[in-house]
Design goal:
Layout (H helix, E strand, L loop, with lengths): L4 H23 L2 E2 H8 L3 H14 L2 E4 L12 E4 L5 E7 L3 E7 L5 E8 L5 H19 L6 E8 L2 E3 L4 E5 L4 E4 L1 H9 L3 E5 H12 L8 E6 L3 E7 L2 E3 L30 H4 L1 H9 L10 H9 L3 H25 L3 E5 L7 H14 L9 E4 L6 H15 L2 H5 L10
Parallel strand pairs: 4-7, 7-11, 12-15, 15-16
Antiparallel strand pairs: 1-3, 2-3, 4-5, 5-6, 8-9, 9-10, 12-13, 13-14
Helix pairs in contact: 1-3, 2-3, 4-5, 6-12, 9-10, 10-11
Bound molecules: zinc ion.
């Protein structure tokens, strides 16, 4: 980072611009005077910055403000069509892609199956979906600000590297670079639960919340964390393996090779294994089928979800005791199980969380749409648009003292 006075001036200019842009995103439609009051920047600075943003098409003017007698004030808001982004979620079987505007509204959505699982084959499939999304939406590739990709497993976002993908069998696959060489626009990758967490932070329940976590229930059990306002991924991108925290000494064998992981009770394969061991249940092939049985009143299916909910609640109380978040969002395919999972979960959270911490945390179950993962991936790019330059400019953290 440049330490010169000129460098500092550029940083301050970029920072002020980021403050104004984010204020318009958070509070728009909003008048210039209000932006000045809330930000503490001078009216002259606000006029200059908003003028630049208008000229670049990043924001637009509307005239819906309340008049206090005189002319109706002109309000500012993010220009939804100021640019477009693409989000791609890679699953075990295929790719779900969306093309969105600047407010994460989906303009086009597609699903493709994978023709091969090598990083090269997947990159080619992703690139072809980028082309077909642009074509279907009638958006030229030059208007796409970037492509975000959500992947299962461990991801090193800064190196655009899939460190480990359990479904595709990858180790250290340079998927970001491979895709970039096809599409020639900036490519961002991250763990899929982190991408959902970005989406919640930018446009969802996590807006303005500095300490919250996202727990996903589906094929596995995932965790995304926003700590002190930042998405936390750990030293090497491996943070958040909540599904592999141990809840049962000498418990069931997990896909990760260990025994008694939370995922063996709450993840899809764990639920299906419990169902297969249950004599009075018909054969079920998916979590969805088991949920349908439970919702129809099948006592054995309900009991499986009750056990899963209890285990999930124990895990969540550990998270509350460690992180003291103000909000926990629960999302993913498994939220369809509703009360048969969440009533026992809430009971276990109350039972196991330290009484002094329990009232601090609100738990919300987020309704689930099947394009949520892809919208999350698009938010990786939108997050870059709204990112503060300080986050880019601050050198790596001061070494921690070990305690
Ligand atoms: Zn495990």
């Amino acid at each position: 980072m440049s330490r010169s006075p000129l460098g500092s001036r550029h940083l301050i200019r970029d920072l002020n611009r980021s403050i104004v842009l984010n204020m318009i995103k958070e509070h728009g439609p909003i008048g210039r005077a209000q932006v000045a009051r809330r930000s503490g920047l001078s009216p002259a600075s606000i006029t200059k910055i908003t003028g630049d943003l208008l000229a670049e098409g990043g924001i637009l003017e509307t005239d819906t403000g309340e008049s206090s007698g005189g002319r109706r004030p002109i309000l500012l808001e993010i220009n939804p069509t100021g640019g477009y982004v693409i989000g791609l979620k890679v699953t075990e079987y295929g790719v779900i892609g969306v093309l969105t505007d600047m407010t994460a509204d989906v303009l086009e959505k597609q699903k493709d199956s994978l023709e091969g699982t090598s990083p090269e084959a997947v990159a080619a499939c992703l690139a072809s979906q980028v082309d077909s999304l642009c074509h279907a939406a009638g958006i030229p590739r030059e208007d796409v600000l970037g492509v975000g990709v959500g992947l299962s497993g461990l991801v090193n976002a800064s190196q655009c590297l899939s460190r480990q993908n359990p479904f595709l069998g990858w180790r250290d696959a340079p998927i970001g670079g491979l895709l970039q060489s096809h599409v020639h626009v900036p490519v961002y990758i991250d763990n899929d639960v982190n991408t959902l967490t970005f989406a919640e932070r930018l446009f969802g329940h996590g807006r303005g919340v500095d300490d919250f976590i996202v727990v996903t229930i589906g094929r596995g059990v995932g965790l995304g964390m926003v700590l002190d306002g930042q998405v936390y991924s750990g030293a090497h991108g491996g943070a958040g393996e909540f599904g592999h925290t141990i809840v049962q000494e000498d418990g069931l064998l997990c896909d990760c090779g260990k025994y008694g992981c939370l995922e063996t009770y709450v993840g899809e394969s764990g639920l299906l294994r419990a169902a297969a061991e249950c004599d009075d249940l018909p054969a079920v092939r998916s979590m969805d089928e088991l949920i349908d049985l439970g919702l129809a009143g099948n006592k054995s299916a309900m009991a499986i979800f009750a056990t899963a909910g209890d285990m999930l609640g124990r895990g969540i109380s550990n998270l509350i005791n460690i992180l003291n978040p103000s909000l926990i969002l629960i999302s993913g395919e498994g939220v369809r199980a509703e009360e048969m999972l969440f009533d026992p979960m809430h009971a276990a959270v109350e039972k196991h969380t330290m009484p002094v911490l329990f009232p601090d945390t609100e738990i919300l179950v987020d309704p689930w749409g099947d394009d949520a993962w892809a919208i999350g991936a698009a938010c990786l790019v939108l997050g870059e648009v709204f990112r503060s330059p300080v986050q880019n400019a601050v050198p790596s953290a001061v070494p921690q003292m070990s305690g």
